[in-house]
Amino acid sequence: METVGKAGEPIPVTVLTGFLGSGKTTLLGKLLRRPGMADTAVIINEFGEVGLDHLLVAKGEENVVLLDSGCLCCMISNSLSETLADLYFRRVRGEIPAFKRAVIETTGLADPAPILQTLMTNYLVASHYALDGVVATVDAVHGMGQLDAHMEALKQAAVADRIVVTKADLVDRQSVAALRERVQSLNPSARLVEAVQGELEPAEILDAGLYDPSRKSLDVQRWLREEALVAESEAHGHGHAADDRGHEDDGQTVGHAHTAYRHDDRVRSFCIYLDEPVSWQGYAAWIEALRALRGENLLRVKGLIEIEGTGRPYVVQGVQHVFSPPLRLDAWPSDDRRSRLVFITRDLDRAAIESALDLLRDPSAAWKAAVDRAVKR
Fold it and tell me: What is the CATH number of domain 239-376?
C-alpha cells in the first residue's frame, strides 16, 4: 500500500503524446527554451528530431545533454525502463543535475498504454517515478481527419489529462471550435489548451497529477475532474448525472451534431458513484474481473473509493489490464464522501461496468455470474 506526503516522494512524469504531424515535436522544442522547464529531464527518441544544437550548454556523457534552460535531454537507449533507471541513478551519484520532474515524448504512432503501464508496474521505475499526467497534441488542421481514420490518435486523446490543440493559428476559429467540441465530447474530464505557433507555457501541461506543487498538497478534484464530465453530459441533455454521452449500440451518436459513424463513437466517458464503502475483497474481485474479461476495452480508469472499516478514501487508477496499487489519502478532498470512478472505455458501455459492480458487494457470487455470462457470449 502506498502513502503520500513522505520524504523521498517519487519524481513526477508527464507523458507527451500525439499523432504524426500534430506538432508535438515543435511544441517540445519550444518548451525546452522556457525557464519553466528548468530541473526537468526530457526523454526523447532522437536528438535530431527536436533540433537541440542551438540549445546546448554542454554535451553530457553518452545519451544525455544539458540545455541552457536548465533541463536535461536524454535519448532512449534500449528500453524506457532502463533509460529511466539509468537517469535516476546518475542523479543519485551526482553525475547529472538533480532533476525534479521528467517528460517522456512518445512516437506519433505510439499507443500510450504500454508507457503508462511501465510507470505504474515496473518495480524499478515505480520505486522512483510516478505518473503525473498524460498530454496529447491534436492538430487543428488535420485533427478531425486523424481522429476519424486512426485509432491511435483517438486513444491518445482519450487517455489524456491535458489536450493541446496545435496549429490553431492556421485555421479559422470556427474550425478550432468544432475540433475543441469534438475532443471535449470525447474526453470531457481533460483540460483543453491551445498552442499558437507552437508556443505554450510549461505550466499549462506540467503538474497535472494528484500533487499540486503550488499548494504543496494533493488535489484530487483537480486531477479527477469528474464534475467536467458530468457537466458535459448535462449540457447535451441526457438528463443523467453521469451518463455515457448517449451512445447507442448501433454506432450512432445521439445528442451531438454529427450522426455518421466515427471511430470515437466507440469511445465512451462516464462517471459512476457509489454510496456505500466497499471491502478489500470486493475491490480485488472487481479489478480482477475487469482485467480478465474486459481489460482491453478499458482505456483509462481514475477514481476515489472508500474502503469499509478504514474511514479513509483511496485513489485508484488503471490502464487496460494494469491497475496501480491504491493510494491512501489522509482525508476526503470535499464534503462529498461518495466513491466515484471515471471511465474512458472503447466498445464497452456503462451498463456492462455497472453489472461488474456487483463484485464490490458480493464478490464470490458475482464473480461466478460474470464468468457464466462471459462463457455464454
Answer: 3.30.1220.10
pLDDT in tens, 269-317: 899 999 889 888 888 888 888 888 888 999 999 999 999 888 889 999 9
Q: How many helices (H) and strands (E) does the chain have?
A: 14, 17
Q: Are 206 and 101 in contact (CB under 8 A)?
A: yes
Comparing CA positions, the residue from 156, 148, 83, 149 lying closest to residue 114 is 156
- pLDDT band per the 50, 70, 90 thresholds, residue 235: low
Q: What is the identity of the amino acid at 261?
A: Y
User: For residue 255, is pLDDT > 60?
Assistant: no
Asked if the domains at 11-218 and 239-376 fall in one CATH topology, the answer is no
Give the residue ranges of DSSP H helices in the chain: 24-31, 47-50, 80-92, 113-121, 123-126, 143-149, 151-158, 173-186, 220-224, 226-235, 280-294, 350-356, 358-361, 363-376
Q: Which helix (H) or strand (E) holds 55?
A: none
Tell me the angle at which helices 80-92 and 113-121 cross, rounded to the nearest 10 degrees: 40
- pLDDT band with cut points at 50, 70 and 90 for residue 346: very high
What is the Cα gyration radius of the chain?
21
What are the boundaries of each domain within the chain? 11-218, 239-376
Residues counted in the chain: 377
pLDDT reading at 110 higher than 90: no
Cell of 272: 459512476
pTM over 0.85: no
Please state, in angstroms and rounded to a whole number, the distance separating the CA atoms of residues 13 and 49. Answer: 21
pLDDT on residue 197: 83
Per CATH, the architecture of 11-218 is what?
3-Layer(aba) Sandwich (3.40)
Q: What is the DSSP string of 159-188?
A: T-SEEEEE-GGGS-HHHHHHHHHHHHHH-T
